[in-house]
Amino acid sequence: MTTPDQPKIGAIFWQDLRGDNADEVRDFYSQDVAWMHTDQDMVGCADYNMNDPESGETVAGICHAKGSNAGLPPQLLVYIVVAEVAQSIKKCLELDGQVVDGPHILDGSQFCVIQDPAGGSRINQPEKMLFGPARLV
């Protein structure tokens, strides 16, 4: 059950880009859409929070393909709220999707990266596990 502060099941509540060239991607979006950025300290490197230039609101993350991000698709990954990660994985596999990464446990809750039959990937997280931008990237 969601509260007023939580997105509902099925909602996209975050997005980030992952890849080997995070600095180049950061600079591209800073120039192309005028996003500002702040560094997000990660173990061994800094990822980036991309911020709206007017409001300062963090709208996306850009992550290096290191540590827990190594091996994930170099694309925009959206985070979708699901009721139960295990149930989502089961249904994904029944529908000819794939589990690309995980499931993993973070802060006592599971998440995973799945890929649909067309090749699109996303991150599934349960509604009880919500992050602020600083914890996503």
Describe, in short, the structure shown:
The chain is of the alpha+beta class.
Strand numbers in spatial order across the main sheet: 2-3-4-1-5-8-7-6
Specify the helix fraction band. 10-25%
Counting DSSP E segments of at least 2 residues, the number of strands comes to 8
Order of helices and strands: EHEEEEHEEEH
Taken as a percent bin, the fraction of beta residues is 35-45%
Q: Identify the CATH homologous superfamily.
A: 2,3-Dihydroxybiphenyl 1,2-Dioxygenase, domain 1
CATH topology: 2,3-Dihydroxybiphenyl 1,2-Dioxygenase, domain 1
Largest sheet features: 8 strands, mixed
Instruction: Kindly report the average pLDDT value.
Output: 82
Secondary structure topology:
Layout: E1 12-19, H1 22-32, E2 36-42, E3 45-51, E4 58-64, E5 76-82, H2 85-94, E6 98-106, E7 109-115, E8 121-126, H3 133-136
Parallel strand pairs: 1-4, 5-8
Antiparallel strand pairs: 1-5, 2-3, 3-4, 6-7, 7-8
Features:
137 residues, alpha+beta, 2,3-Dihydroxybiphenyl 1,2-Dioxygenase, domain 1, eight-stranded mixed β-sheet, 3 helices, 8 strands
Question: What do these coordinates show?
Answer:
The structure is a single chain. This protein has 137 residues and is of the alpha+beta class. It has one domain: 2,3-Dihydroxybiphenyl 1,2-Dioxygenase, domain 1, CATH 3.10.180.10. It is 18% helix and 42% strand. The protein has helices at 22-32, 85-94, 133-136, and strands at residues 12-19, 36-42, 45-51, 58-64, 76-82, 98-106, 109-115, 121-126. The chain has an 8-stranded mixed sheet with strand order 2-3-4-1-5-8-7-6. It is globular and about 40 Å long. The protein starts with 11 loop residues before the first strand and ends with a helix. Mean pLDDT is 82; it is low at 128-137.
